[in-house]
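Our preliminary data section would be incomplete without showing what the modeling component actually yields. Below, a chain of 94 amino acids is followed by its predicted structure, encoded as tokens that our downstream tools consume directly.
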Amino acid sequence: MSKGTGEIKKPATAAPAESHAPKPQSAPPASRSTSAKLGCHERACKEKDVRFNFCNEHFRQFKFGLITKSGDRVVDYERKFEHYNAWLKTQKVA
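Predicted structure:
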């Protein structure tokens, strides 16, 4: 070997070329399929969705913590609902 040839030796523990094969592509999940409910995510609501897949009333409840992102009630719904009604009265919304 001569000096300055620029030759670089690879280590003997290099991974085989098969480990660099591209991974199979899966189909991206559909955000809304044709069978998905269009409109408000709350289960009993038939209103059109306005913000974050909720109608205006259920969006306020979601922001207050009464319902989850999927539209289900939280565990302590009754306690939070009392606080929500009191807050609505102070805001003069209801």
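The mean pLDDT is 76. The helical segments are 56-64, 77-91. Preliminary results of this kind motivate Aim 1 of the renewal.
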